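Please predict the structure of the following assembly.
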Amino acid sequence: MTAVEDEVRRIEADAAPTRFARGWHCLGLAKDFQDGKPHQVLAFGQKLVVFSGEDGEVNVLDGYCRHMGGDLSQGTVKGNNIACPFHDWRWGGDGRCKEIPYARRVPMRARTASWPTLVQDGMLFVWNDPQGNQPPEDVTIPRIAGATDENWTDWTWYTTVIEGANCREIVDNVVDMAHFFYIHYSFPTYFKNIFEGTTATQFMEGTGREDVARPQNTGSNAPKSLGNSSVAAYHGPSFMIDDLTYHYEDGDIQSVLINCHYPIDSNSFVLQYGVIVEKKPGMDDAEANELARKMGDFIRLGFEQDVTIWKNKARIDNPLLCEEDGPVYQLRRWYEQFYVDVDDVTDEMTDRFEFEIDTDRPNEAWKREVAENIAAREAASSDQGQPV
Amino acid sequence: MAVRPDNRLADGAMQPVACDACGACVLVRKSSWEQTSLQWSAEAAEACVERRAASPRPGPNGTAFSGCGSLRDSVRAAVHRGEVKVQIEDDLKTNPEAQEHEHA
């Protein structure tokens, strides 16, 4: 046995990061925050207040009043402002104090932290940036056509708090090839990861056995499943859109899954996922919603298994990978860009990287040809007396 | 908190391959016949003709360039010539538990 084989592999891990990722984070469905009441959200290691006033704008402010520290999430929405429950100081969505009912003037420096927000396709997003910069124009969340199309269902939405794990654990899932083997019993026929800029994409074609566990209409007359095609992408550190098509003998079913999270602190996060499904001709709303619900429940089962793993696993910065594993290190290199200052983002974090598995090629014939080519070249060079 | 190097690169490094169409040079590694990794540089991405000509695919994730066909052929040819090593030549495995699952 060599020295290397004899040596115990040590798990290495730095402490969880103390800062929170730069980027757009989805806080949930916008309508849940647009009821005229203040909402407390624990995120990015702080207490935030989310509220929507008469103008309909959704605002996110630091949760504590700069006057005497009152909890604004226990306050009241008055006009377009949030009023503190302690002394009624009124704060606008821009973070400025607009009025103090008992004072003649608002003091200078009456400004609190506010977060840029975006309401799009029924979801509320907040921009987090430890450097305090505004979101660059080219860093956006793409539109999801089905979300505003009446031929699609509304969002079926799930929210769960994960205690005892850092949110970076969930991001590793994008490259987890072994997952396919154990959950779906085989590798996908086609799989590809592309990391480039602030986007990490996963293309996947699944056939046959994978569909055994997939949600579908049951019963002897149910159409036979022919597999599925998925293009899933993280747009920034925490928001993934999965454009997912199920193929059946009698046609395709289009759906979009969202898989997103935001950190509560360095050791807990909120995981959310949502589903919309295209209504097929002849499918009524109840049937379409039931299909979306089945898909969501199926995803929930998968996440519940993951959560048990996350809560008990060790953080490992030096995973020992075999050749069949996915590009875990390359994904983490991409993800790291969200945890450093903008000026410290390096080319290797954002340069394009591709990882592809294609099982559709006739490898036996290919292997044989390559072996013949190499043998022929070696024979030729040894004939000429050249070193090989 | 720099990310560490991939342990698999110690067993076989990435190897340069130039695209026959535009000359863009990328680093290539094949863990198996089915698997290919490509590391692009900014220069290679700029040089790629197919990338410049590509239009977005439909759907919310359509802006990501899905890949260059000429580069894929060039890599394939380089493997064919024996210039890019295939780390493990055995076929991909399937899960033995799959059969039990099927009979259950």
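The beta strands of chain B are 15-18, 25-29, 35-39. Residues 12-55+67-88 of chain B form one domain.
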